[in-house]
Amino acid sequence: MADARRTPVACGVDVGSTNVKVVVLDRDGRVLARASSPTPRDTSGLSVESLALVDLVERLVLKVCGDVHEVHAVCTVGMGEDGMLLDADLVPLSSALSWFDPRRQGVVRTLRARLDDDQAFDAADDAARTMVGWAWAREQPGAEAGVAWVAVADLVAVRWTGRPFLSDTLASRTGAWRASSRTWAPGRVAASLGPVDLLPAVLPAGDVVGRLRSSRLRAAGAVADGAVVVAGGHDHPVGGWAVDRLLPGSVLDSMGTAEVVVAQSRLPPPLVHPDVDVAPGIRSTGTTVLRVVELARNAAWAAQDPDVARWMTALVEGTARPEPVLESGYFRPGGRGGRPPSYRVDAPRAPYARASAVLGALACAGRTAVDAVSGDVGGPPRVRAAGGWSRSPGWMEIKQAVNRHRSDALVEPEVTAVGAACLAALAVGWDPDPAVALGEPGTA
């Protein structure tokens, strides 16, 4: 039963590598409140503190609801590869091996020796894949008590509903699942995680998982009696889906820790996909198509030279103009599997030129990703940019200088959290306007 004193809202939760974001929107799609806080991590800064995460999300939900809003549906999304084994009481048995944890390099080398196939899966094999985390978790003390593997992005939803599950957009990040047949590769699961029954049900993004059972939120009046939890999963596909609702056939270029280019294709998931990663389409029979490009790590590597760092800052902020070396290839970005960045042997030594070459190479890598994803969508790319980098005028000018397409920054700063809230709203029969939700009236 709804509380007449409170406004019914749908809630979106985005568990990011750096911050957790929560937004609530009304039936029409208006964002009514938002809050964020750093993602809780251990003292090493690598692993997410799982139970602290659940506590933080509830605190943020309470903050955005206050005394005026009441959650009727909530959807959680987040990083693609991190997860952990849970015991029978749904308590994590170990920390989650983060997708950027350097320990993954040694684990993947050992794991590859046990994989006897060379078939294509939804995401290319590298150290970031979830099955590397599976292999690591099985070696941790107490792993024998595990009854289910869940992703960090799904953990809060699992705890709220008491139902272990895995969102299908996250299953595609494991390296052992195919969206084309919605099946696991038993040999890969056995080689990394162990018994396949440790994998819970795979639910489509947008499906209702169950009732939201949080005594803390209910005692505060922040959730309706019939409030439901909705599967979301991988953050970037959900953000891309939201932008596709705004502008059908468009591409989302999300630039944060990594640059992730994503779109919704109307075609069914392919069996072979050499240039892109795929996942099931969201609320469709089509396909999510995405490509991940290293961004912040490459910039940080180049910025170890303080003179290059100063010029990069000026170029990104737009207070300096780049040297004519943007497409020179002088800088070679690092990529999948931890391949390190480098300069070509004939690269200029001047910090100004190096900074220009670094940013130009990163912009070109993003252009290649847009081209790859657009091939699955069809037609010339219509690109919307999001993430922290999209609010840097100099960086966007560099992108425009090397692109063969126009890229406009979205008004809404938390596209993924808003997309998750829209998924939650649709699950309970609401129909939020994507243009209102994303702050672009008249665009849809």
From TrEMBL:
Pfam families reported in the protein's UniProt record: FGGY_N (PF00370)
GO MF term (any one): kinase activity
Domain annotation Carbohydrate kinase FGGY N-terminal: ranges: 10-236
InterPro entries to which the protein is assigned, alphabetical: ATPase_NBD (IPR043129), FGGY_Carb_Kinase (IPR050406), FGGY_N (IPR018484)
Entry superkingdom: Bacteria
Gene3D superfamilies (UniProt xref): 3.30.420.40
Protein keywords: Carbohydrate metabolism, Kinase, Transferase, Xylose metabolism
Family: Belongs to the FGGY kinase family.
The protein, known as: FGGY family carbohydrate kinase
Lineage of the organism: Bacteria, Bacillati, Actinomycetota, Actinomycetes, Propionibacteriales
